[in-house]
């Protein structure tokens, strides 16, 4: 558990850590860089660096939070990695459903695994679980269709790092879109017209749009304004989960 500087969430919770690269968006993975740093610092959770690791003890953590939280699940991994047992994924889902006062935001690039487990009836979608897929360029837009086919109550897209245009998105059944540029010392460019086009598509479809950052080595320097304002829209569901 950790407080998060990610603009669209409040904190992170990592029942698994580590991953491997499967598409272009993974090239400069921030989680991999962070895991190496934490390994060098001697943190027990990262003794294996960025190799996949399952942390059973983390399943107890959400029960200890006294106030409602918005939580990004597995910021340092992918819950639907092929080597994470489906039984463990189900246990994570059980923890989330048993803590309905919190919003849990789950994000994956492995939409095929997500869709398969859902089609087999192995996932219990409580109202407070938001399910998203990463869509960094037009080569992986099929992830949106796979997400749309699931029974998740709230579905979202994370177009970050956005490394190509995404014209003519099918936003049917999508509740939220996040866009952001790549961070780091050598970020791949994100054109302003790509961002504006996605924003316009969201406005036309009535889908909340969140612009996270322009990217680069310094987020403060590049900022997060688009067309003279910030875009911090969220899904039109109650965060209090009453």
Distance between the termini: 24 Å
Low-confidence stretches: none
Number of domains: 1
Shape: globular
Main sheet, how many strands, which sense, barrel? 8 strands, mixed
Look at the structure and give the mean pLDDT. Answer: 95
Fraction of residues in helix: 10-25%
Largest beta sheet: strand ordering: 1-2-5-6-7-8-9-10
Q: Structural class, from helix and strand content?
A: alpha/beta
> How many β-strand runs?
10
- The proportion of strand residues reads 15-25%
Number of helices: 6
Radius of gyration over C-alpha positions, nearest whole angstrom: 17 Å
Order of helices and strands: EEEHEEHEHEHEEHEH
Structure characterization notes:
The chain has 242 residues and is an alpha/beta fold. It has 6 helices and 10 strands. α3 links the parallel β6 (103-108) and β7. α3 runs parallel beside α4. The longest helix has 14 residues, at 192-205.
Keywords for this structure?
242 residues; 17% strand; eight-stranded mixed beta sheet; two-stranded antiparallel sheet; alpha/beta
